[in-house]
Amino acid sequence: MLERPKRKNPVLRTRLPTLPPGGRSRIALGLTAAAALGRFELQQCRDCGTVQYPPREACQKCLSIRLDWKAQPQEGELLSDTVLHHSNDLFFRERLPWRLGLVKLDCGPTVVAHLHHRVAQPPGKVVVAAKLDRAGQAVLVALPDKEANMAEDRQLREFTCDPKFRKVLVTDGKTGAGQALVKALAAAGADLIWVGHSEPWKKFAGFEELKALPQVTLLPLDVTDSKNVREVAAEIGGKVDILVNNAEYHRAYGISNRSGVDTARAEMDVNYFGLLRLAQEFGPAMRGRGADGLASATAWVNLLSIYALANFPLHGTFSASKAAAHSLAQCLRAEMRPAGVRVINLFPGPLDDEWNQLLPPPKVAPGALANAVVKALREGVEDVYPGDVAQEWLARWRDNPKALEKELST
Amino acid sequence: MSRRSYEGVAVAVPVTVPYVRYSIRSAHWWLARCLADLLKASGLRKDDIDGLSVSSFTLAPDTAIGLTQHLGLSPRWLDHVPFGGASGVVALRRAARAVQAGDADVVACLAADTNHVDSFRLTLANFSQFARDAVYPYGAGGPNASFAFLTSYYMRTYGATREDFGKLCVAQRANALKFEHALFKKPLSMQEYLAARPIADPLRLFDCVMPCAGADGFLVLTEERAKSLKLPYARLLGTIERHNAFASDPVQMRAGWAIDQADLYAQAGVGPQDLDFVQTYDDYPVISLLQLEDLGFCAKGEGPAFIRKHTFTWDGSFPANTSGGQLSVGQAGAAGGSLGMVEALRQLTRQAEGRQVKDATLGLVSGFGMINFDRGLGSGAAILSC
User: Fold this and answer.
1) In Å, how far is A79's CA from the nearest CA of chain B?
2) Is the CB of B153 less than 8 angstroms away from the CB of A84?
3) Chain A residues whose beta carbon lies within 8 Å of the beta carbon of residue B150
4) pTM, 2 dp
5) Sequence-ordered list of residues with C-beta below 8 angstroms from that of B351, at least 6 positions apart, any chain
6) What ipTM does this complex have?
7) What is the rounded distance in angstroms from the CA atom of residue B82 to the CA atom of residue B73?
8) Which positions in chain B touch A110 (Cβ < 8 Å)?
């Protein structure tokens, strides 16, 4: 079991972040692309069906270049294991001893994998999964079973952003989604949760209930106010391990149903500039604490929208602001990467709130969104598409982005 | 079609440029020294070398062709053999055919690598595409973890003990004490072997080669030419080479030798029992064990019993790695693939000084190279006689 980390001695030097080797060939990034969504996919030959690993440019059996990344059964047999007591790589050198296994997958290939401590000595059955490591690249991990908790394993915790024992900032506690997020993070063992509210002179529905949670500290936070964001970051920025930016401004309609740019500007001010302000003020401090012990700075979560992928004309300006935020989140991801701090983007379908009143179900309930965030933090996923609508849009978009645009415009 | 013999081919002039742990020189420096030593020992002039074979990891960005200008050579036959531990045998068999065919008169086979303080780490990080994609990100710096997997699997499957592997390492150290260029100068006891610091379970320090800088080289020429130069030489009786054998074995417990050993002995017209010594490729002891099995000295899985039966010292039963092998001399990168070759030539031409195997007339050299992902890909072997 993971033990609560001791209080940090502020006089001692904070260890600087190092990363596991992040270089990959382009073809190997297929493993990372799937792992980013929480999927385990290996190359499979469309012509002869051979499953292969490490990734190759051609089928090792029939030389076909028609190779697909396809979900594979995760079961395999642990053939051999070792514990490294030496490594030339700084990241691992700081974390020795480190256990690795050689696994024969039931679908064919033999793979090298990080080994969960509960996996017994070989031979024996294991479940292999692809996870993002601290460098944001996929690695294979071998688990004793599908339910194995990665955050409780000293090695595999490095690949998760589990909220347990961590300090979290949720930027907007006024919405149903924000309140569900706070409750889910508290239930997942977060130590302390700062919850922002932009109009502190007003009590909002659910205020008392939030305030009653022992982990929660409410604080005035308005992501459209640069000065306020700077002041809050100066106060708590050095302690935030996980930042969840759920502040959002949402109005219906596209271009021609409204005159002027006030609404669109307000959407951009919260959804895009809000993220930018937070990133400028909180980013540097979180980057400095990427290797700060068991409860290091670990993740930044953005509430985007499935409309960030393709414009939904009925909510056209909102879509545009989310697309802008998505692009900025990619920039943030690149800038947080050297510290090993993961940027997790949420692309939900329509939330079940007042601004989506006229959209037909299914809609994403606040609780479902919150659970998706906790699951992503625990399992080391970086792009999350909660809800049936988001899953369907994602499938359509991956299949043919132009077709999706045409479908949405009619 | 039956294979042609290597009749008329001479292998001569084993040289070693003394190894050092670290060098500030580049691979070119080591290769130049190696060639100069070959010329000095053979009495040949630089212009007499019309064939050149080069093996090196750290020569990059150059290859053999760049080296010709670097060293002012103008060969009419040129080979680059970047196959690590398999390159000694591979270079020899190609050079032998070139000389037989008249494409070259004298081939200098050079193998060298330098070792700066950080170069081993950099070599590992970029060793192969598979290593970069699927091994290096796991903290497994180089072959340690791969051989730990094989060693552990072998121990569990065939009942080998740490003492079995230790016996090979301790015997090789005894041999190394008689070889002036070995970097390890102190005796090794079984107790020290067993108690050494752990590296990657079950491997400990003395199971792992030490990277260093150095060069080894030899000449391949016709017997006539060797005689006219009054050079002692060995004859080549047979060779084999195989890559990516048994690709579907889930874990490497055998390599290409197991496919080709009958061919090797048939060419040479001898059997394993006739050999006076064996030089295995030994970056880790488990791989020596696989070679002893796959080359027919004992059956698969009987390696541990075979080890318990023999001494492996130069003056004992079954002399093996008589100069100490890489485990006690050091691993000078790709030169490690020629360490056994030059030692075999010294034994067969009576230049092995204090460790001469008595009446040695027939020896086997084996090569193994390139841990590309989870296993070594290349295997080869040659039988030589005096």
Assistant:
1) 7
2) no
3) 80
4) 0.94
5) B14, B232, B345
6) 0.94
7) 20
8) 250-251, 374
